[in-house]
Amino acid sequence: MRKKIVPIYFASDKNYLPYLTVAIKSLVDHTSPNNIYKIYILSADLTDYDIPEIRSYITDNILIDVVNVNKKIESIKDKVALRDYYSVSIYFRLFIPTLFPEYNKAIYLDSDVIINRDIADLYSENIGDNYVAAILDETVWSNQDFIFYTKNSLGITEKQYFNSGVLVMNLKKFRDNNIENDFYDWINSKKLATVAPDQDYLNIISKNKVKYLAPGWNKMPMSDIDETKLYLIHYNMFMKPWKYTDIKFDKYFWDTANKTSFYDMLRKQQASYTDEQKRQDNLALENLLKLAVNIAKSKVEAKQVVVNTAPSTSIVVDEMPELVPVKVKKNK
After folding, report:
1. Number of domains forming the structure of the chain
2. Alpha helices per DSSP H over 196-239
3. Least enclosed by CB within 10 Å: which of 68, 172, 249, 268?
4. pTM to 2 decimals?
């Protein structure tokens, strides 16, 4: 029987290498010999020589490569004008369709995740003519300020806004609609006002062209879930187990980290995370919420500078949970 090829992409740099290693280890631990997993690490500063531990995971059916995106970044420098507070890494997932024309479909994952199930099951989702398959963003639907922002600035409700840290991407559709260049036009627009440029953009162009998946495929440590349905944990925003001691579902991170050479370093990092750093986390979240509200109250709408969206084919698989406030841990 011919094995199925599963292309998976991460974006990372040297600073994030420990967490990337833990994420890939968790993915590898849940692979099947019936598939071929092609793992690509998109980076501007990592090389194969920097990831000997990750490369040790390579087998006959698990292939891992670092893809240097500096040439790509150089080729678009005249097309985009980065703001001081945007990292160039926001572009990386949008590079995938044009850098890899051999694939019509792929998975993109942030590096702050733990995979508890065969990622091929996620890849097998039939996304039809949608741009992406994705999961509703728990940090948005659990906070009234973010809800206000997405509705008034993006024209998207909390029952539509997805998190772009876990995606099944329809690469062919991205290429056919020239989405990468459209993004450059959008982000350079003088009208642009946005909190999360790449994620907001993907939500706008994908509006009504999303297949929504079960929350267990991108579960943030904010509310309870039947752990038999906890397929992928996303330690999003400030909810990092290597910083805080009481993050929900952190045992999955530490169980996997303990299988890597970074375990002791990560435990020391957690133990040394200061009250001042925690205070700064809280301040950063407060400022982000203020920014979201200020943008939403302004007359500038990000949704006004985007190409026309297509007719609805969205599929929602779960009802919305009761709203709860989003927060980071307070100093003790």
Report:
1. 1
2. 197-205
3. 268
4. 0.89
